[in-house]
Amino acid sequence: MDIGTNTEISLIHRGAITCVSAPSGPALEGGHIGYGMRAAEGAIERVRMQDGRIEIQVIGGDAEPVGLCGSGVLDALAVSYKAGLLNRHGRIRSGHPAVREDGDHREITLAPGVAFTQNDVRAVQLAKAAIRAGIDCLLGEAGLEERAIERIVIAGAFGAYIDLESAVAIGLLPDLPLERIEQVGNAAGIGVRMTLVSSALRERARRLATRCRYLELGSLPGFQRIFMRRIGFE
Length: 234
Description:
Layout: E1 7-13, E2 16-22, E3 43-50, E4 53-58, E5 67-68, H1 70-82, E6 99-102, E7 105-111, E8 114-117, H2 118-142, E9 152-155, H3 157-161, H4 164-169, E10 181-185, H5 187-197, H6 199-211, E11 212-214, H7 223-231
Parallel strand pairs: 2-11, 3-5, 9-10
Antiparallel strand pairs: 1-2, 3-4, 6-7, 7-8
Helix pairs in contact: 2-7, 5-6
């Protein structure tokens, strides 16, 4: 899996490689998030709940928090759900000291001047539902269940920094033992450098490409139903 605005997912099973591209949007990278930003100084990169209080970790150590980067967005949703600040449909609940209400508008205060809003919750729900539906469709096409997955390899800059427990908690990734999930960083960049210096590896990449079968998610029977089911937290 290479998680981004489009998330590319390949299932390797019995020598065959089947691929989909899930339209996950920019939310998991901080885009379309009210206080979203790139991973720079002042970005909240980790969110935890300790004794009922929200605790954050900011890039730059003692820097003042000014927004949320992708890993912080994922943590914010996972922590909010596990702490009961969200119901299973993703609606922010009232009654917690971190929840601020203004009429029908609710948001979760993460730090002075930085909040996680209801619109942010919805944006991340849509992103994670698209990715999980892609996984479900690949498994369904192969006649496999989640427990048959031996290893998940997560590539990409965003994938290198996400907290795996948070990803599983919100349903972005299947609920598998964490030792089956590997984060490998910028695999695409490494692959490009390898093929630039080796004709043998370029030929291997060409052969791999010819083995891949691409599936258009939107045309698969049941995709919309699976996508809608994955929006909530079941």
